[in-house]
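seq:
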Amino acid sequence: MRDLIVRVAVSDDDAASALRVISHFDALVEHGASTAAMVRAAAALAGTVAGWHDRDRATRVDATGRTLSDPAPSPDPRWPRLGLDHAQTSAVWIERAGEPGPLDRLIVERCAQALRTKLPRAGMPASPEDLTRLACESEVTDRERAEALRALGLTGPLTVVATPAPVVPRARQRCLLDGGWVALAATGAPVDAAALAPGTARLGSSAVLDGDVPGAVARARRALALSVDPTLGAPTHVAFEDLGALSTIAESLTPEAARSAPAVVELEALRARRPWVPATICAVTTESSLRRAAARLHVHHSTLQARLEWLAGALGYAPAEAEGRQRAAAAWAVWRVSGLLHESGRPHDGTGRGGD
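struct:
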């Protein structure tokens, strides 16, 4: 590795680029990135197609991150290529037309080193974390996934649970994957999905359909993205199957677009003045009565009335009345898509009373 760094360090810029390659793959390993993410990183850094094969599975990705479905062409001896094991059953390469780029060998070396962390160590049984990752990644074969699930003791209906990186699921069948935690739970077991994380922690879940664990992982993560920090409202635990039309809104509206929506910009400005605004909007639009909303917020009914009068003046409509409630509910849905409700980012006493 030292020889590679010396060879590419022709100028300060080249040395800095080499260090960026090294730190990029180190970060991928630290965050439990998938094998596909590692190959995508190699392709993006090299600016051309990168490929990886491991026994009977293979992945090829172009420089834009698009997975290529056509088989790899016959290997060119000029391609930078490195085996991941002595038997050469697994290898990573860069498909460079012409002479290799100055960083190609370094990219292949670091990608191979990162990919080795995903492969079972010879002579050692796979850990529950390795088996869970194998079951969740889209690049593995159906046979490998089925064998991993059997080894984990999961042979019936499954639920996938996703939590943010700081929240480690209380489950044996869990792994850190692409910067967040994923856990597998037997559907209908005494310990259900919600019991895998504290009620104050954000969580997303989805049922596995037709053995498609990676699909359930993606849906659970979409549900997690629509969860709300408990100091800002609800829900904290979100099942994808319960989202209804909100899942369609989330798929058609990016978080960036949602943040720039006038209603969200307006509500964020009000939150800066009155931290209780998100939780109040949530309670008023989801509870069946104002008394239930006040009880949920742990405030007196008169306090809630005062808040609603202030909101009506600030918003230009009354969120507790029929038309205003529909408008506020729509704004709340887009606010959830924005991701701005994941963490309060402000001191909070847990009562939601601040700023009255």
